[in-house]
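Provenance

Sequences were taken from public entries as deposited. Structures were produced by running a predictor on each sequence independently, with no templates supplied. The record for Transporter from Macrostomum lignano is shown for reference.
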Amino acid sequence: MHMNASNSAEAPQAGEGEAADENEARGNWTGQFDFLLSCIGYAVGLGNVWRFPYLCYKNGGGAFLIPYLIMLGVAALPLFYMEVAFGQFGNLGPVTIWKACPLLKGTGWAMVSISALVSIYYNVIIAWALFYLFASFNSKVPWADCNNYWNDFHCRDLSVSTTNATHNVPGNLRAGFNPNPEACSQDLKTNCTQYQTPSEQYFERVMLGYTSLNGAIKKMSDPIGPPQWHVTLCLLLAWIIIYACLLKGVKTSGKVVYFTATFPYLVLVILLIRGVTLEGAKDGILFYLKPDFSLLLTSEIWSAAAVQIFYSLGVAFGCLTTMSSYNKFRNNCYKDVLILAGINSGTSIFAGFAIFSVIGFMAHKTGLPVAEVTKSGPGLAFVAYPEGLAAMPVAPLWSVLFFIMIITLGVDSQFAFVENVLTTCMDEWPWLQENFTKQAIFKSVVCLVMFLLGIPMCCPGGIYYFAMLNDYCAYYNLFVVAIVEMLGISYLYGIKNFLNDIQMMLGFRPGPYWIACWLGITPALILFIAIFSLVKYQSPSYNSEPFTIWGEAMCWLMMVGSVLFIPCCGICEVWRRGGLTAALKETPDWGPPVEAFWLESDKYREKLKQMNTPATDPVTGHENRPGVDDFSQPSNTKETKT
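Predicted structure for Transporter:
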């Protein structure tokens, strides 16, 4: 059965025995703060720093906060609460937890497949940050000017005005005379130069190798090229860090997050204090927050807000289910959900001030409008912001702090994605965690495979593969998974069962607002977002270079492939269990992880009685005790009571 019989004497109460594990076979967080900080580290990621500020200024500045907070309350937060409560009650990973409704077991596999794909490219970002961190330990950062071997006449440093008769590009004394010094624009497209900043050329030519030293740009149809050794070694180091932190499971990662989840806030405060003292900082902040309420009448701003908060909280990846599955049964997950949502949104807003104060300074130094300095995604973290840091006094110090912050933000989220994959496999195949040696070998194999799959993104043409995974491995498929998960729990497992389960854990039932969201409001809203995004679909590209046909096909294959787990596994479960009715019915061993908690509920007390009552076979006359193997694969986290 799916419980730990050794803890059956008495149900541990809230606040008692924090150091002891309720679920001895599977383990629990050492303390409540382990879970909170792990969730903060997971949800507060790179998107809070490099995506939210950009979306805010692009979609009406301060006016964007109105749809953002509304979408938080009706779209993301209900699903966030549902996943955390579901995982805590079952104490199982995102696949095995569908003992509650075996027909939807494929929903868990879809989540895990998405998490695995995200893990592959997410560590590449950490590898980039490690490379920039190492490069920052110099007397000056290497992207500070245009006087390097990788720069050409396309490099222009507007922060200085050095030119002469043979070098007529501002800040560039390395390149020769440029016959067409005018910068290209929408109005001027011929006899002009498409300039780049020093940090842009460093990112594309030195780190990525995407642009060769003679200015040739890789296309997706070109050979991908050999791996860049410096990025590949940084990727290997990133995976070694992840493996070391996850080697002993949540007992190790739960302690690491005490640093990785809190350090970014210290750096953001330092960068904000430094940023607001710079010239032009006020212009950047005003540009970030200046409200344009007329955009509230457009559908784009509402869709952008919904998509951002959906991704920001990290719902439908299965990671929240995994992390909450290590909670103790009496943990007040409702309070945790509200705290985490508030911290996540507050961090996004706060990060915008730290980012745009420096962007405003950069605009002031170059004489360009703030809008032309601002970028989104990797362009903000590895091009625009480092450019601003390079113009500060003692630039290497600020650069080191910034990239340590990027690394810690990324590592926290990566912990959750990889742990999601590991936990799922070990829940499904308990022999993988029979002892520490097997666990260590299994985890090393998973990390090694993901490292190898990430190597193509370390090649000169690998940025296209990165863009493919970054933009499409978790897109429409994530919306489908979220809708199926929410409707499956609400209607197939049953909203009454779910509410009763929460009451068992917390001592109270969720209010009408949560029930209304779970039953219809949130799934309908997510469906609207998915349809709207599909209507606005554009063929994928990177840096205005369109993907090849096979590249676009791969994007759709990733999205469709993960969703196909849902019907395929559903069909398998119907066949295994002898019919649709059996596949819809929860397994006999579904319930809380500790036997004592079963005795608090009439439903689970009756199930326990049936599982321990021998039945007589009408043909042989022998006693036949119904066991877990008759219904589902047993989990190592529960022991059959005999």
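The chain has one domain: 40-141+226-583.
The longest strand covers residues 541-542.
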